[in-house]
Design brief:
- This protein has 12 helices and 20 strands.
- By secondary structure, it is of the alpha+beta class.
- It has 2 domains: 6-378, Beta-lactamase (3-Layer(aba) Sandwich), CATH 3.40.710; 399-522, Lipocalin.
- An 8-stranded antiparallel β-sheet has the order 2-1-12-11-10-9-8-7, sandwiched between helices. The chain has an 8-stranded antiparallel beta barrel with strand order 13-14-15-16-17-18-19-20. A two-stranded antiparallel ribbon has the order 3-6.
- Helix 3 packs parallel to helix 6.
- Mean pLDDT is 93; it is low at 1-5 and 7-24.
């Protein structure tokens, strides 16, 4: 789902794989739990992750469901198999399953037009509006840019509703032709949740809980944190604040529900994955085989690296709520999820009846990648790879390059501050600016400082620091966002600011901070 460039980094990890390893047939030997324990212990330390929960299912049985580390650096309470995590974008598979149930009941079709159920649905392009189907809501080929509209959902203090998201879609100019290119989004899954509600007559949260969670006995899980029946044994979110990992504010957003709201545990998610995989010992199926085939059929093609791979991957695609690829001749169905302070991954190998679940309480996707790769290697017969060190090396290379550019920006800011007047005048910039979908943004002078604040998203408040000419660096007050941004003012002939364009400073800023989609025009 969202933050920390999770999607982009995960795709990069999938595409940029190590040199060809020795091929071996898939194995049936039991998973070496002691070796897994050692890998997880190294992972916790290498990536500064307080806690991880892991589950593995095979042939309708739970092979492992276990917690490692602590729920919170503040309390030091241990993670166990029932500890609850936000699963973020792994929720998308529940939303597509909910729609699949409605298709099975004959209440809608995948290729029905969205306007049949939501007449007020409108994209920027009239052709896209008229042709947009339920299927199109689910496979990230809308023409919208990466993460378009996510600032209505993040940070979680925003007061936007599903109706706001639906109305705002008309303002986003496409960055590619309709159905021509993959660009991940969350906003259209919120629309999909509204389709579930209007077709079923129940809110998305109620439908998913009554038709999916409860029948599977996922009794500790809920569609959003605020609906948890027993909010004990829940992790705290953790993330780096100016370089140090610490407990950070939990995202309490309810709008995000259909795109990434579910809280669950590896014990509960084991029931979900076993139901999807089927086989002896698995829970009774809630979805017909034809529905699963539809969910796991490629809809939007993704690139595959030409580099040699231990998994010998030939295709990669997005289905309906799932990523798809082949690994050593078998189909892999997977998804990642990320929100403030926690990231997750679920992998299914349907032909091997294997499912892997890794939940973490830190926003570093390298951790779940190292653990899931180790487990998947076992079941695919791949050996001799140090998955932890591999991710350490990749992360170091990625961060080193990003740090260079970010450090250079703040060095320039420091130099600009030294050169600036001790009594600066910011009158040309002060005022109210308006964006069609985010609403009003206020720029005000407080003493000798210039500040920016989004009215409908009050956690988006930060100091504007001189960078160059009429461009400022916004240092957000909420440091856990890790999303500082540039704000470039355009001036009229009188030297008065008339508009602001924004973009992230760091290349590692999560795509959900889609500042580049804002078009802030002065209104007073």
């Amino acid at each position: 789902m969202r933050l920390f460039s999770l999607l982009i980094s995960t795709l990069a990890m999938l595409l940029a794989v190590p040199a060809l390893a020795q091929m071996a047939p898939p194995v049936t030997a039991p998973l070496d739990v002691a070796a897994l324990d050692a890998v997880v212990a190294r992972t916790l330390k290498a990536f500064d992750v307080p806690g991880i929960a892991v589950a593995v299912v095979k042939d309708g049985q739970v092979v492992l469901a276990k917690g490692y580390g602590v729920r919170s650096l503040a309390t030091k309470e241990p993670v166990d198999a029932n500890t609850l995590f936000g699963i973020a974008s792994n929720t998308k598979a529940f939303t597509t399953a909910a729609l699949g149930l409605l298709v099975e009941e004959g209440k809608l079709q995948w290729d029905d037009k969205v306007t049949k159920y939501i007449p007020e649905f409108k994209m920027y392009d009239p052709y896209a509006t008229a042709e947009f189907t339920v299927r199109d809501l689910l496979c990230h080929r809308s023409g919208l840019g990466l993460g378009a509209g996510d600032l209505m959902q993040f940070p979680d203090s925003a007061d936007f509703t599903a109706a706001d998201v639906i109305h705002s879609l008309r303002y986003f100019k496409p960055v590619s032709s309709f159905r021509s290119k993959f660009d991940y989004d969350n906003s259209l899954y919120i629309v999909a949740g509204e389709v579930v509600a209007r077709v079923s007559g129940q809110p998305w949260a109620t439908f998913v809980e009554t038709r999916l969670l409860k029948p599977l006995g996922m009794n500790r899980s809920a569609t959003v944190y605020s609906r948890l029946p027993d909010p004990t044994n829940v992790i705290d979110a953790h993330g780096p604040i100016d370089g140090k990992v610490q407990v950070i504010r939990r995202d309490m957003n309810t709008l995000l529900g259909p795109a990434g709201g579910i809280y669950s545990s590896v014990a509960d998610l084991s029931k979900w994955t076993m139901m999807l995989l089927g086989g002896r010992g698995a829970p009774a199926p809630l979805l017909k085989p034809a529905t699963l085939r539809e969910l796991w059929t490629p809809q939007t093609i993704l690139p595959v690296s030409p580099a040699p791979s231990p998994y010998n991957t030939h295709f990669s695609a997005y289905g309906l709520g799932w990523f798809l690829r082949d690994v050593r001749g078998y189909k892999e169905v997977s998804h990642t999820g990320g929100e403030i302070g926690m990231v997750t991954k679920v992998i299914l190998l349907p032909e091997l009846h294997v499912g892997v679940i890794v939940l973490t309480n830190q926003e570093n996707g390298a951790a779940f990648t190292a653990v899931t790769n180790f487990i998947e290697d076992h079941y695919l017969g791949v050996s001799g790879l140090d998955r932890v060190q591999e991710m350490v090396d990749r992360l170091k290379a990625r961060n080193t390059e990003a740090d260079k550019s970010t450090v250079a920006v703040w060095q320039q800011v420091a130099a600009a501050q030294k050169a600036a007047s001790k009594r600066p005048s910011y009158g040309a910039y002060v005022g109210r600016y308006h964006d069609a979908w985010l609403g009003d943004v206020l720029v005000s002078q407080q003493g000798q400082q210039l500040w920016l604040r989004a009215v409908r998203a009050p956690r988006l408040v930060g100091q504007l620091l001189p960078y160059s000419a009429n461009t400022y660096a916004v240092r957000w007050k909420a440091r856990s966002m890790n999303a500082d941004a540039f704000a470039a003012f355009s001036l009229d002939e009188r030297g008065r600011a008339v508009s602001i364009k924004m973009k992230p400073i760091s290349p590692l800023t999560d795509f959900s901070y889609d500042f580049q989609d804002l078009d802030l025009q002065r209104v007073e």
